[in-house]
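Go through this one:
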Amino acid sequence: MNWISRIEKLPRSASVTYRCNPPVVDEELAFLAAALEVRLPEELRQLYLLTDGLAEELQGIGTTGYLVLPAQVLLHENQRLRQTACYCVHDLLLVAPAYTGDYYGYLIADDGSVSTDIYIWSCTDNTRVRVAASLAEFLVSWVSSELTA
């Protein structure tokens, strides 16, 4: 199933919709990967080639957050949190805020490869708990309120 089909099948309510943005170009993805010293997971890379993040919009309000951060926001947030002395997130590629201070992301191996599983990182105790086997599974679980962690 391609990303367009996956996004179209995300559970929605009368007041919540999901907005795609113009796609990210390969050069920007290469810059992002180099700046963060990772190999982007293919699933995330394919999503960015379709849409620069996935916004959640509330009817009458507009964008209220992101299910997947836009590429430049992802870069900024990962760099900012990696430079903060009290956080140890160098082994994570954070892709979505949990809106509690925590983030969802992929684990990064020493060689820069990234897992396909999605974890939630707790900013209060620096733990990582696996919540989904893939980005697609994570998105469906999150928007249907079935995410456990």
Summary: The domain at 13-142 is CATH 3.40.1580.10 (SMI1/KNR4-like). The two ends are 26 Å apart (CA to CA). The beta strands are 16-20, 54-58, 62-68, 92-97, 103-107, 118-121, 128-132. The chain has a mean pLDDT of 87.
